[in-house]
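In this supplementary section we document a worked example of the pipeline. Step one takes a protein sequence of length 138 as its only input; no multiple sequence alignment statistics are reported here. Step two produces a three-dimensional model, which step three serialises into structure tokens for compact storage. The input and output of this example are shown verbatim.
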Amino acid sequence: MRPFYSKILRRSLCSLALSLAVLIGSLGALPTAAMAANQPQLMALFGSNRAEQLDDMAKTDVDKTFGAGTSNKAEGAVKQAQGKAQRDIQNTKGSLKEAQGKAKQDIGRTQSAVGDLEQNVESATDDAQDAVKGFFGQ
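The serialised model returned by step three reads:
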């Protein structure tokens, strides 16, 4: 017969493993909120009330296992990372638009310079022809 404390130890280890799996799974998610109530897959499977219950259970297990406030810290860290990623995306989009604008300006300047060069070459050609005609008296 097994001692009573081995059952308690086994249950505690199973609970710890489950809590750790939930924590790792939620932190490994894409930049969405880490908890179950914010995951549309769970909401679709269980309904929003059940998903919220699972979310609360996961938060409670994480807080019991790793200390009070750990779930809030993890959720905050994920939301902070999500916000940073969104800011970086917006900055990148802005930089791309700015680069496109500068490229269009450069194309316009180049076209203008080519046009000016064509006019200068044409003017110089006309002046050379006039000089040659003047030299020969025509």
